[in-house]
Amino acid sequence: MADIPGPGSVANNLARKQSADTALNTFRPPPFPHSNPDHHCQEFISPEGRYDLYHEILFDSLIPNYNIGTTVSLVSIKYKESSKLEGLGNLYSNSSSTTNTSETVAASNSADSNDSDEENNVTLHPPSPAATASNTNGNKQMHVLRRKFSLQAAAASQESSNSMPSRQMTSIEGGVGSNNATSTLSFLTRGHTLSGNGKAPRKPKTSITKSNSSFVQRIITNDQLAKILIARTSDDTNLFYNCGTSFVWMDATGHPKEPLSRIIFARSYPTVHDVNMLTRGSDHLDVIIGFSTGDILWFDPLCNKYGRINKGGVINSSAVTAIKWLPGSENLFMASFHDGCCMIFDKEREDLGAFPLDSSTTNGIGAGTTLVFNNPLAKPHVSSGFHQVKIESLHEDLYLKVTKPHVRGAHKCNPVSHWSVSKNSILAFAFSPDFQHVAVVGLDGRLRIIDYIDEKLLDTYQTYYGGLTCVAWSPDGRYILTGGQDDLVTIWAFREQRIVARCQGHSSWVTSVSFDSYRCDENVYRFGSVGEDAKLILWDFSVSALHRPKTQKQSRHRGASVSSFSNPVQGLGSGYYEKPPTLHPVLEKNRVAFLQPVMVQTIHADPCVGLYFREDVVVTTDRRGRVAVWKRPP
Length: 634
Description:
Layout: H1 7-25, E1 43-46, E2 49-57, E3 72-76, H2 81-95, H3 101-106, H4 136-142, H5 185-188, E4 206-207, E5 216-221, H6 225-231, E6 237-243, E7 246-251, E8 261-265, E9 270-275, E10 287-291, E11 296-300, E12 305-309, E13 320-325, E14 332-337, E15 341-346, E16 350-351, E17 382-383, E18 386-392, E19 400-405, E20 413-414, E21 417-420, E22 426-431, E23 437-442, E24 446-451, E25 456-462, E26 468-473, E27 479-484, E28 488-493, E29 498-504, E30 510-515, E31 525-531, E32 535-541, E33 582-584, E34 593-595, E35 599-602, E36 608-613, E37 617-622, E38 627-631
Parallel strand pairs: 16-20, 25-33, 29-34
Antiparallel strand pairs: 1-2, 2-38, 3-6, 4-12, 5-8, 6-7, 7-8, 9-10, 10-11, 11-12, 13-14, 14-15, 15-21, 17-18, 18-19, 19-21, 22-23, 23-24, 24-25, 26-27, 27-28, 28-29, 30-31, 31-32, 32-35, 36-37, 37-38
Helix pairs in contact: 2-6
C-alpha cells in the first residue's frame, strides 16, 4: 500500500519548489570584464585583398558566459524548388490559421528531406566532396563511414572545389552477430548510416513549445518565421550560436536582423553544438547541443522538437567540451567531457544510467598491450550492462581504455562507446577527411591520433608548453594544426609522424585554428588562428618555404619517436598483441622550423573564441557573444 503524504510532506514539497523557483530566477552568468573601448575594426588587409565587416551579431539583452564564449554552426540547404514550394507553400497557407509560428512549422513538414546537398561551403572543417543534383544517392553513399577491412566497391570519386585530392569512402559491414569481441565501430554503426535507401531520417518527438521540463525555460520564435522559411533559397545560410543560457538561430547575413528562434535554458549553459550535414533538408535539421551540466540536447529547429541525452548528467555530469556528428552517420555523434573522456552516442537511444568507473582490471597489463576480452582466462569488468573491451598501454600518454555496452543490450542504450583518454580535460577533437581518424587535444598538452573506426590509439605528440586548446586537419589530411597555451600554432605531418613547424605571432593563448580550404592548393596551404589576444592571424604554409633551423636536422622517420611498452602479458591464451601506440617527445624550439604570419589584425574588442572559413565570408566569434561576418575580397 502506497504511503499517503502528510501535511508536513506537502509543506516540504512546497518549500522545495519555492526554493527551486528562487534559484531559477536568480541564476545569472558570472561577471565579465569590460570590452576594449578603443577597438573599432571594420576591415583587415591580407595579401589577396581587403576583408570588410559585412555583418555583426550582438544582442545586449543576451548576458554572455565569459568563461565559455560563443561558437557557431553554419549550414546551407540545397532546395529543389518544386518540392520546396509544395512543402513550404502548405506551411504558408496554414500560418494564417494559427498564432503559433513554431506549431505551424511542425505541422507542415511535407517537403522532401532528401533535398539537401553536400556543398563545399557548408562545413566548418575540411569540405566534403562536391555534390551535383543528378547524384543525390551517390552523395549519400560517399558519406558512409570508412571500414578498412570490409571494403565494398567505392562510389565514383568526386573532386572537391578546392582542388585538393579527392577522397574515397567505403561502407561498413558486420553487426551484432560478429565474432570479433573487439567489436569496432563497424559493429556499432550498423543501421546508422545512409546508403541511398531513401528512408527519411527520424526526428525528435518532444515539443519544446509545450514542454513543462525544468531544463528549458522558454523558446521565442520569430512572428514571421513561416514567411521567412518560404522565401529562403539555396544561397541562404543558417547560423546557430550560443550566448550565456541562450541558443540562437539566425540568418548569417542578417536578413532579418532578428533571431529566427531563441531557446533559453534554465540553470545550464550551452557550451558546444553541431549540425548534421548528412540529414539536413528543407523540413529537417539535426542539431546537437552540449551543456555545462553534461546534458546533451537533440533539437530540430524547423519543428521545434527535441530529445534529451545524458539527462541530468546521469552518465557523465562534467561539462561537454566538444561535440560533433560522426562523418557519414545519421544517428551517431561524439562528445568530449571535462573529465577527460570521449563518448559516442546515438541520438535515438535511451540513457542506461551511471557509467562504470575505472577499475583495477588494468593492473598487471603491460604497457603497449591491447587486451581483448574474448579470452576465457580474462574476465571483463561488468557493471550496469557494460563491459570493458580493451586497454591500450598503462603509460599515461599512451593510455586509451574503451568500454561499451554488453552485446545483448548494445542496441538499446547510450553511450555506444566510452573512451577514457586522459586524466585532464579534453578540449577539442577533429575528424580526418578520410573518416578514419580523430585528432584529440586537451589540457595535458597532448595531441592524440586515434583510429576511431577500430578504436585504437596510434600516436601521441607532446606540446612545447601547457595545454592544447584546438585542433584542425588540412583538407587533404596530410597536416594537423594545434593551438594552445604556449601561444603557438603547431603544424604536424600526419603521414610522416613528425612536427613540421611552429608558428609564432600570438601574444596569448590560441583558441581556434582552421584551414581555409578555398585558398589551399597542392603547394600552399592557407590557415588562420584566433586567440585570447583578440587577434586574427593568417598563415601561408609550404614545406619548401619554411625557415630551417641551423642546428641538427630533425629526423623524418618513426625512429625519432619513442614507443613505451613493457614485457608482454603471459597466459592470456587467445589474447593478441598489436603494434603499440607511439609517443613522440617534444623537440626544443631551435630544432623546429618556424613560420611567419602573412597577416595579423586585432579584430575583436574581447578575446576571440571561434574561426570559420566559408566560400564567400570568414566568421569570427568572441567571449562576449559577438559574431562577426567578414566579406572576402572580390
